[in-house]
Amino acid sequence: GGQLESLTARAERQGVALLGSDAATIRRASDKGTLPRVLARRGVAHPETRVVTTAREARDAGRRMGFPVVVKPARGAGCAGVWLVRSARDWPRALAAVGSLLPEGGPFLVQRHVPGVAASVSLLASGGEAVALAVNGQSLRTAGSVSYRGGVTPLAHPSAARARVAAVAAC
Questions:
Q1: 139 Cβ neighbours under 8 A, 6+ residues apart
Q2: Given CA atoms 125, 43, 142, 59 in this order, what sign does their dihedral have?
Q3: Of residues 71, 100, 101, the one with CA closest to residue 86
Q4: CB-based contacts of 159: which residues, under 8 Å, 6+ apart?
Q5: Cβ–Cβ under 8 Å, residues 25 and 18
Q6: Which DSSP string corresponds to 119-164?
Q7: How far apart are CA 110 and CA 53, in angstroms?
Q8: Could you read off the pLDDT of 24-49 as tens digits, one per residue?
Q9: What pLDDT, on a 0 to 100 scale, did the predictor assign at position 37?
């Protein structure tokens, strides 16, 4: 698991009361490989996504989807190991970057890139209930590797209300 999941699990084993998600919830939330299925079951639109384990599978998925595609680890948060592959020339660096973060043969994702405004929804969730706190704009650098450069909260965007509803529906 990731750092937050590991630290949370350690605190749970030591009997520390936490204000936030438990380790199992963090593990589920950081599993980007299952997210498309969860969203589809709840009727939430999501980019075409393929879970792959080899460079060949990644290239085949990218060829079927068409450039640009996004390549990223199947587990994790943030932009670690995330690459925007704009052409076949980008594959070697993108695959090396994502591969450096994975166990041997570990799954990673190839997703159709959807142009638009980068955004997220902050949620407060407990059990099966969730409340959308804010829609956040994200500033991303997408020159090969993707990196987070900051954000704006709240995001004033015509789709913000729809994003809140979709995020709550995904919980």
A1: 118, 148, 149, 150, 151, 152
A2: positive
A3: 71
A4: none
A5: no
A6: EEEEEEEETTEEEEEEEEEEEEEEESEEEEEEEESS---TTHHHHH
A7: 10
A8: 888 877 888 888 888 888 888 899 99
A9: 87
* Residue 71: both structure tokens together: 């390549």
Strand extents, DSSP E, the chain: 49-52, 69-73, 83-85, 108-112, 119-126, 129-143, 145-152
Q: Is the dihedral of CA 59, 63, 64, 68 positive or negative?
A: positive
Structure tokens at 26: 């963090």
Within 13 A of 135's CA, how many CA atoms are on the CB side? Answer: 17
User: Tokens for 96?
Assistant: 């090396």
Note the pTM of the prediction, 2 decimals.
0.85
In the structure, what pLDDT confidence band is assigned to residue 23 with cuts at 50, 70 and 90?
Answer: confident
Tokens standing for 62? 């990218």
pLDDT of amino acid 27: 83
**Could you tell me the strand order of the sheet in which 83-85 lies?**
49-52, 108-112, 69-73, 83-85, 145-152, 129-143, 119-126
Nearest to 88 by CA among 74, 104, 68, 102: 68
Distances, alpha carbon 125 to alpha carbons 19, 21, 148, in Å: 12, 8, 24
pLDDT at 125 over 80: no
